[in-house]
Amino acid sequence: MGRRTPLTTNRLISLLALVGLAACGGGGGGGGGFTGDPGGGWTPGVFLDASTFAARCAAPRSGINPATGSPFPDVQGTTLDENNFLRSYSDNTYLWYDEITDRDPGLFATPEYFDLLKTEATTASGQPKDKFHFTFPSDEWFQLSQSGISAGYGAEWVFLSGVLPGEVVVAFTEPNSPATANGLARGAEVLFADGVELINLNTQAAFDTVIAALFPSQADETHDFTVRDLGGTQRNVSMTSANVTSTPVQNVVGIPTPTGAVVGYVHFNAHIATAESGLITAVNDLLAMGISDLVVDLRYNGGGFLDIASEFAYMIAGAGPTAGQIFENLVFNDKHPTTNPVTGVALSPTPFHTTTQNFSAPPGQPLPTLDLPRVFVLTGPNTCSASESIMNSLEGVDVEVIQIGSTTCGKPYGFFATDNCGTTYFTIQFKGENNKGFGDYTDGFSATNQTDPKGTVVPGCSVADDFTHALGDPAERRLAAALAYRENPTCPAPSGLAPPGVFKTSAGSDLSAVDGYAPKSAWHQNRIIRR
Fold it and tell me: Which residues pair with 431 in a beta bridge?
C-alpha cells in the first residue's frame, strides 16, 4: 500500500522537522517542575514566574545575539529549567492557557514537552483549534525573518492533492536561484525525485527520499529530478541547494483595459522584513502607472510581520478611511485584559501605519498611498494570518475587498517570537480584531459563490488555481476573473477549494483548474509581532 500523508499545517511542521527546518533544542530530563525555590518539586497548577527559569540552558550559548546586538544571556542550567520556562510562559501568555493539560515537565525532552503545551480542542468543522504551534532554531529564525534566506532551490512546490503520493508542481520561483538556473517555471511537474516516482510511493523509504529531495535541510545538497515542463517536454534536472534569498514582492505590472484604465497587479509572497522596501517601491511604481484598480495576489502568502500588513493596508487605502482607525486590536487571554503579557506595556490597538517601521526602509518615512476605495485579492488555501489581516482590516474601515480564488486558511491568531536557549518558540498569544471588532474567521474567508463548506463570506468568485499561465498574466484564471468582475460583477462556475481541505484528485489534474497546498516554513504561515 502507498502512503498518503495529508499535508495539513501540523503535518507540514512535522515534515519540516524531518528535514531540519523546524527543530528545537532538547536534552535529558530529570526532576519535577519547580513551585518554589529551584529545589522544589512539581505541583500541578502552581507556577513560578517564567523569568525564574529564562536563559537557564542545558547548552548555554556564548557570543553576541544578532537579534539584539548584546551578549547572549544564557547561563548553565538543565533541560528541566528550559521546560519549566515553557510551562510558566505558556500558563501566563497562551491564549487558551486554561485548556493546557498540566504535565510534569521532568518527564519529557524539551521538544516533546512544548508540543504538549497547547489546547487539544477542535473547531466545529473538526479541525484542531490550535494548528499553529511551532518552533525554530533561533539562528535560522533570525536569518529567515530578516532577509528571507533559507536553504532550498528557490522553487515553491505545490502538492495538488494536498497529499503524497501525488502530483507536485512549481507555483513560482525566486530570481537567480537554482530553480531558475535549471529552467524551472510555474506549472512544471516533478515526476521523479532521486529516482522515486512521486505518484507511486509504496514504502516509507521512498517517501523519505522524496521529502529529503524536495526540502533539502542545508545548502550544497545535490538531488536529481525528472520534470515535465508545461509544453510536455520531459527532462532530467540535477539541482544543488543553496541559501536562497526570497523576493517577497514580484511581478509589479500595469494591465491596460479596453476602456483605457490601467489595473495594477502585485504578487506579494511573504511579510518578511525586506517586503517593507519592496512594497514601497511597488506602490510608487503603481502610482507612476496611474492605476485605477489594484489586484493583490496573496494566494501563496502565509503571513509574517503584522506591522508590514498594516503598512500595506494603509498604502492601499490611504489616509481617508484609515485616519484614526484601528488596523488590528490584539486580544490576549483573560489574565491580561489591559496589559500585553509579553511586553508589559498597556494594550493599545495596532494603527494603520502611515510611516516606515524600520524593517528594511529607514524609520519614520511617510508611506506612499494609492487611495483606492476597493481592492481585488487573489487567494488560496495558503493565504493565511497577516495576509488575512489585510483583508479583514480593510473591510473594517469599509474599503471594499473582492476575493477571487479559494478559501483562505483561517488564522486570526498570532504571537510574539520568544527565544530561550537557542530555540525560538511560537505559541498563540492573541486574537486580532478589526476596527469593527470582528476577528472570528477560523474557517477562513470564502468568495460569495464558494461551495460548502465555506468560511466568512466576502464578495467575489470561487476560482481554482491555474498553473498553465505565469502569475501576472491577464489570461491566468484568477487574474482573468478579477479583471472580468471589475467590468461586470458576475462569476464563472465556482471551482476553488473549500475548507476543511478536500483537494482536487491528483491523477491527471487539469493544471488550468486545480487547487493544492504549498508547504511552507512555519514562519511563513503566521502573524508575528516584533517586541
Answer: 331, 413
DSSP state of 228: E
The fold for domain 152-243 equals: Pdz3 Domain (2.30.42)
Beginning with the edge strand found earlier in the chain, give each strand of the sheet holding 418-420 in spatial order.
Answer: 134-137, 423-426, 418-420
Q: What is the CB-side half-sphere exposure of residue 292 using CA atoms within 13 A?
A: 9
Q: List beta partners, residue 109.
A: none
Q: Are 298 and 378 in contact (CB under 8 A)?
A: yes
Task: Report pLDDT for 7.
Answer: 35
**CA-CA distances (angstroms) from residue 101 to 45, 91, 110, 329, 365?**
10, 10, 16, 29, 47
Alpha carbon separation from 518 to 162, 171, 382, 496, 507 (Å, rounded): 8, 8, 7, 15, 18
Direct distance between the N- and C-terminal alpha carbons of the chain, in angstroms, rounded to an integer: 49
Neighbours of 122 (CB within 10 A): 11
Q: What is the pTM of this model?
A: 0.83
CA-to-CA distance for 310 and 314, rounded, in angstroms?
A: 6
Give which of 458, 440, 457 is closest to 399, Cα–Cα: 458
For the segment 66-84, what is each residue's pLDDT rounded down to a tens digit? 888 999 999 999 999 999 9
Let me know if the fold of 152-243 is the same as that of 249-331+348-412+429-514. Answer: no
Assigned C-alpha cell, 519: 508547504
> What is the C-alpha to C-alpha distance for residues 113 and 247, in angstroms, rounded to an integer?
35
- From CA 135, how far away is CA 110, in angstroms rounded? 11
Q: Which residues of 465-488 are buried (b: 16+ CB within 10 A; e: fewer)?
A: bbbbbbbbbbebbbbbbbbebbee
**Cβ pair 455, 446 in contact under 8 A:** yes
**Angular region, 398: left φ>0, alpha ψ -120 to 50, beta rest:** left
Q: Where are the beta strands (DSSP E) in 194-302?
A: 196-197, 222-228, 234-240, 242-245, 249-256, 262-268, 293-297
Q: Is 85 helix (H, G, I), strand (E, B) or coil?
A: helix
Q: What are the boundaries of each domain within the chain?
A: 13-146, 152-243, 249-331+348-412+429-514
pLDDT average, residue stretch 87-104: 97
Q: Output the nine-digit C-alpha cell for 203.
A: 514504502
Per-residue pLDDT of 21-52, as tens digits, reads 222 333 333 334 444 334 457 999 999 999 99
Name the architecture of domain 249-331+348-412+429-514. Alpha-Beta Complex (3.90)
Residue 102 φ then ψ, to 5°? -80, 110
